[in-house]
Amino acid sequence: MKRRQFLSVLTRKEASRRYYPENPPSDKGLDPYTGPWTFEEASHLLRRTIFGPTLTQMEQVAAMDLDSAINLLLQDIPLPDPPVNANYPDDQYVPIGQPWVGQPLNDANTTEHRSNRIRSLRAWNRAQLATDDINIREKMTLFWHNHYATEFNSSPEASYRHLTLLRENALGNFRELTKKITVDARMLKYLNGNKNTKAQPNENYARELLELFTVGKGPQTGPGDYTNYTEQDVVEGAKILTGWKIRGLNSTDPNQGLEVFFKPQAHTPGPKTLSHRFNNAVIQENGADEYKDYIDVIFQNPAAASFIVTKLYRFFVYYDITDTVRQNVIEPLAQLLIDSDYEMKPVVETLLKSEHFFDIPSRGCLLKTPIDYIESLIQQPVYQMPTELKDVYRVNLKIALASNSLGMLYLNPPSVSGWKAYYQSPTFHRNWVNSTFLQRRNNRKNNATGNGIGIANHSYAIDLIATVQLTSAPHDPNTVVADLVRLFLPVPVPDSLKDYLKSVLIPGLPDFEWTVEYNNYINNPDDDNIRLSLEKKIRKLLRAIFELPEFHLS
Length: 554
What we know:
By secondary structure, this protein is mainly alpha-helical. It has helices spanning 3-11, 39-49, 55-62, 66-74, 110-129, 137-147, 156-168, 174-182, 185-190, 204-211, 231-240, 290-298, 303-316, 323-339, 344-352, 355-358, 370-379, 389-402, 435-449, 464-468, 477-488, 495-505, 511-523, 528-547, and strands at residues 220-222, 225-226, 244-247, 259-262, 272-273, 282-283, 453-455, 458-460. The protein is 48% helix and 4% strand. The strands form four sheets. The protein has a two-stranded antiparallel sheet with strand order 1-2. Strands 3-4 form a two-stranded antiparallel sheet. A two-stranded antiparallel sheet has the order 5-6. Helix 5 (110-129) crosses helix 18 and helix 10 crosses helix 11. The two termini are 17 Å apart.
């Protein structure tokens, strides 16, 4: 698939119908990258590892060396403060401005109160994507959220704890995170783990633990026998996982918060024997720790390392895994993961420092997810934002929900498999862009550069003039175009395209006309007519950039 050509056809813009030679995935391996370290390399790194990287962030990383940049991205940072009651005066336990985590819901109007906390959680979670931190944690949190996919859960407390678990373990141990997820309240509720008892075994989680969360299914090799596990393992696994319960999921009782606990009398007693796929291992009766013993055995199968590394590659690099990529990247990373006792940090570090990651075919080859697209529109230009707590949460909630119509809503993957763009062959990331989604992206672009987000009697949108003032010489139309292209687009573009964009900014006029108009504004910033005329030109330029196929790439 000629991915850029594919986008050009969808945009139906003559100026965008350019031919870019289709490159196969890089044939480079995991040797450390030793090539040039410029703004282009720094921006590529950040476009893949944080949401909507700003010009300031790109320039900061470009001024470092690669090792320092990776160390910054991978460093441990404190967990964010919990979400607060921003605008619900009827909360009988939590005043405005105070955290609601760990506090009961109202015993009256409980449904309304719960919905308000869910909105608060969504707004708070979106705010974490927009921090000034140059850190990979939020991208890794989304990676795990897609991997251990859980659809909408009406418990704000369980959802907050779930997100916190993913953040705490974003670069931690894959095996240990799997253990923690197994007894996570949101997961127990979603895959019926809390209903799995010796009297009525429920195999939902036992099956997904193997098929989607650890070793993967692989081709069927016989009746009930797959490449990496058998139906016997699902049955025995369900028995091992019996006995886990939840109480206080949406509690209105101050004395009963959310609690996950083990009920011995609901657990299937005795040893459980796994199949030949796990060397006929016997999991001995071990009460509340029995599931940990089982997961330890699962991770003795090297397929678990290959499975997660493949997903990591598709998330951070590209979907197309050729035999060369598998040999040069996937297999060595999987072995590194095993050698590191399933610690993820060394694997992520090795991938991000590699020749493969920085090779030209690896740049600008992924379609932006809906969340990445929205964050690019909000964070990369100068976007006006409120300061009052109530309005901050309202604006963040609207931004969080904006990606829903584009096919992706945080906290609500479409199924236990996650979003199709990460697993559905052969389309993969092309699921993010079709004629419907592209039109909706266009609407979001027009909204961001137009009236923006309305809250009460105020609108928050791109500050058009301040965005141009991000450039190194805002009085020069050539510099304006070149610097904004470098900020917003992940790949170099020909001079002919820059000429086209300049013609959008100053159609048919000599360069000095822009310089005169811009300086006129600087000298008369309170003149509305001068300001509106300048903003009209900038709006057309930004919309033209945001309509380019390259803007949809990461």
